[in-house]
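Input record (one chain):
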Amino acid sequence: MTTVYLGLGTNLGTRSRNLSAARRRLRQCGVRILRQSRVIETEPWGVTEQPRFLNQVVKAAWEGTPRQLLRVAKEVERAGGRRRTRRWGPRVIDVDILLFGDEHVTLRDLVIPHPRIAERPFVIESLSELGARNPYEGRAFVNR
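The corresponding structure, as predicted from the sequence alone:
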């Protein structure tokens, strides 16, 4: 089993229910959620003319490859009602693979660690809360 960290975000519909449903669907797909961060409300990033987001990070155990986890993440998004219309636009649910053990992955459609971790303070804060190790520094994330 590999320890993974997934970022969840939603800004459409009943946001707290969307997060709960995403966690339930992840469990149904074999993602064993170990801990979850508190939920943080944030301003939109990228495209700012849209509703505020609820965000959360989950620490989980996964038995499979990064590519298989990406398929699960996309399926959870689809089942939750996500329709990709505009990059960084509004969404019912977003599931990002932030960290996958100590692995560094660079594929056409998947980069791990997530390339925009440092640009999103709520992600650093949540990873710090869960005690995640920074893959670039080899020690725990620090919320600065």
